[in-house]
Structures are given as C-alpha cells and as structure tokens.
Batch of 2 targets.
Target 1
Amino acid sequence: MLERNGITATSTTGTPFKKVFLVDIANVASGGIATKTELADLMAIDDPHDLNGDGSTTFTFPFVTIESVLPLNSTTLLITNDNNYPGAGGRDLNSDNNEFIKIHLDTELDLATFAN
C-alpha cells in the first residue's frame, strides 16, 4: 500500500510524506484490525554511492503521483510514478518526469502474500 500526501519537494509548505507499507489482511475477521508494516520511506532511500550525483547519500522520490508498486522478488520492489502531464513539481518546477526506481528491502517478503 502507498501512503502519500499532496506535498512535493517544490511545495512551499509542509513536509512530503511518501511511504510503502505491507498490509496483511489474512485472517482478519469482519471488523478486525489488519497489521501494517513499513517497507520503505520514499523520502529517505539509502543511496550510499550517490547514484543520482546530488552529493547526498539519501535519495528521495517526492512525487504526488507515486502509483505503482511491483515486487520483483522477495527483497526488491519496483516503484513508479505518473507525471500527470502537464503538471510539474516533483523535483523542480520545470520538470515533468516519469521515474522508475528499484528498492532493495531490509526485510524479505513472502511473495505468496501478493498472489492472493
């Protein structure tokens, strides 16, 4: 599950909130409570080799339109955004980029959960 607010890196107020959670609804009775586990904070992704060349060891994915999460294997997610052309504002006011990122998880997922 994606949880995100409408704030981007270029917003003038507020803090961007973009996270991926695993919600387990197995064995939840009617009216029961599901468990939710944070898998990734998309505003604080480890980037120890500074792959985007911004001088930081943290990468951010600050888009309002983060829309897809695909498990590639038990420890890797593919996250994508939709640019909502002609809107802009994810990284800067002049861009309208689509981006795809692969995130390595610290926890191993049970892929059978996604098959149901």
Target 2
Amino acid sequence: MDIHYHSAGEAIAQIKDGDNLHWPCVVGAPEMLIEALVHRAQTGELHHIHISHLYTEGYAEYVNPPYNEVFHLDSYFVGGNVRKATWAGFADHIPCSLSQVPGMIESGLHPCDVVLLTSSEIDENQHLSLGTSVDYMIAALSKARLAIVQVNKYMPFTYGDAEMTLEPHSEGCTRYRLRLKNGASVPAMLVRGDKELIASPYPPLTETDYAIGRHVAELIPDGATLQIGIGSIPSAVLAQLGGHKDLGIHSEMMTGDVIDLVEKGVINGSRKVTDPGKMVAMFLKGDQCLYDFIDRNNDLLMMRMDYTNNPLVIAQNPNVVALNSAIEIDLTGQVCADSVGSRIFSGSGGQLDFMLGASMSKGGIPIIAMPSTTAKGKSKIVRHLTQGAGVVTPRTMVHWVVTEHGAVNLYGKSLEERKRLLLSIADPKSREEIEATV
C-alpha cells in the first residue's frame, strides 16, 4: 500500500472551533503537529480549543498568554513545561489517579474529538506503534472522530496495546483508518515528521540517594515485581539489585536503568502471574540507549493505563514492590506528593494505584522513599502538612517509609508509634523542632 502524507497544516486544518484535543505523554507528544496547531491559532482561525494530556516534554507554547483566548489546558499531571502557566492560572489541573483517566474519556465525562500522536515507521505489513507512550491513548482513540499521526522514523516500535494497523479508508480528506488491538478503529490523517526524540539525562546519584537505595534494596525479595518511578532514588535502588534473582517489571513507567539488570538476567519476569517473562509499562523515559533497547523488543509490552495502573491487576502478582516518593509526610503518615502547599507541583499520578495494588499483593511491599530533607535543608517529615497541601496517599494506606536514616513500617501502628518511627528516620538536626511544632 502506497502511503500518502498530508502536510501538518493540512491535517491541523481539520480541527474545529470547540474541539477537545488529546495527545500522548513525555516524548510521545507530536511536536510538529503541536507547532502547526499554535501556528494556526496565530492566524485567528481557531477558538475555544480544549487540550488534555499527562506530563509532556518539549514544546508547550499553547499555554502561554498570547493563546489564552484560544487554548485551555487541563492536565492530568503537571510537567515542568506547563507548571508556571498552571501556577499563573493560564492552565489548570485535574486531580485524579491515573487508573481513572481512561474511564473519564470512555464515559464522555472528558470528551475527545481529535487525537494528535506520534507513531513509529509504518512497516511492510502496515503495522505501526505508539512507541514510548501508550498512557490513555487507547481510550482517546476509541472515542475520537479523527487521529492525526506524526509518523516519525525515530520512534521505536513497541508491542502490546501500542500496536496499530493502518487500513485503507476513503471518507472526506482521510485515506486511512487506525485499527487498534482492542478492535476499535478511527479515521486517520498521516503527517511525515522525522525528529529525534528528546533524551532525558539520568541524574547523578548522591550519597543520600545511595543510602536510601540500600535501605530499599534490603526490603526487596527475590522474585518481586517492581513498580519504579522517575528520579534518582529509583535509579539508586536499581543500581543495588545486581545480586537479586527473578525480578519482574509491572510499572507505570520504565527507564533505561533496567537495561543492565535485564542483560544480567536479574530482571526476567519468571515469577510473574500476569504477563510472565514480560516487562510491562505504559510510558518510557530515558535516552537513546533506552529507545534502541525497546525497539522491536518482544520482552516489553507497552500497555494501556487502565491495565498497568489497575490495582486489581497489580495485585495478581506476588511480592509487588511499589516504590514512590513524597514532597512531605506528616507524623501520622499522610503523604503529600503532588503540591507544595496549595500550589500544584505535579499530580497524584499512579502513586495510590500502586500503593493499593501492592498492599493487596501477597507479600506486597508499598514504599514511600525520600530524602529526609529538601535541597534547602528543610525536613520533609513534618508534624503537620503545609497548609493547603494535598494528601495523595492517606495514612491508612502507608506501609514502609524510607529515608537515608533508615526504613520503618507504619502499617497497623498507632499514632504515637508512627510518630516515634518517623522521627527515628527524620533528619537528626530537625527532630526536636518537629516534635515542638504546634
């Protein structure tokens, strides 16, 4: 089948006033299409466009003041490229656990008219892939009237729910349909847009990171299924698992830190109940080494968010280790992970999904791991959460809390016991001050 490509401008011209747009997270966001969308707004042709997505990287001009009368963003997770605009009121945030997002789309609570996405190259069998970012795109594509696809030779081909098939279709200006693994299909327009994916540098690890990593690694049994997050602490944990056996991955995200453990056979998924022998994630973040590693890699399944983050699916695997972090935690165990006071910093993400799933897993180990202090030396263990701070994981769901000073298990403990345990892993210089805080 000969492939016909439209220009970005031709494709974006199909977007109508009042449309609800969605696109994938992290490096799955189709920058060429987004730039064309902003360019069309500059002409005065577009009005009242609603945008939704998770955390993305790169170009996000649509949230800036010149376009406030055209675009409105409601993000499910606030990334650094839209954070200041969100604080300034030029964009907004929808608090949610990520497992809930597909249902919001499918029910019509959050409408979807057009999906903009990046795909891999189209192969000789007309197969293409969402590559690094599936997130909630299966739900969005199942409801949309149109998909606009930036075909990018640099996007790796991944398996699982990421896989799609291109079919002939003749209706209006569209020549194709995208057929999803779940059987749904959507009219599609193709745009050629070869652009190297943004590479995320791995942060240098500190002595504090390594200390936290050692404490966490000691909690992880052989045969565990891991959920890992973003940042230096997950990197420090993975760096210290070389002596473990038969680990698996069922995670919201995955980074290149797993590659060494996979190549050594430490991560093989042999004891998993769901998707045995496979790593499972719904988005990826890393560098070119990661992108090369995942391309046509049968050991990785990129799955939809309501599968990866479903606590009932997570709990089917034994010994699930859910590793998450916090901005602050109070002496009763309440975890704030999405805001600094009342100012939204990120989002709830999948923390509660995985904390709940791990708590229901046989032998599961839910963990909150964090440095005892901020970069400015302020204690992250506090008597009371900062006024306005949100609670992402309630104290009823908190089990292990880890800092560089140790690991304690709050589950089943009284308020006084929790206070004593948390103070024992707080910054020693801050302990008296925390206790004295009214």
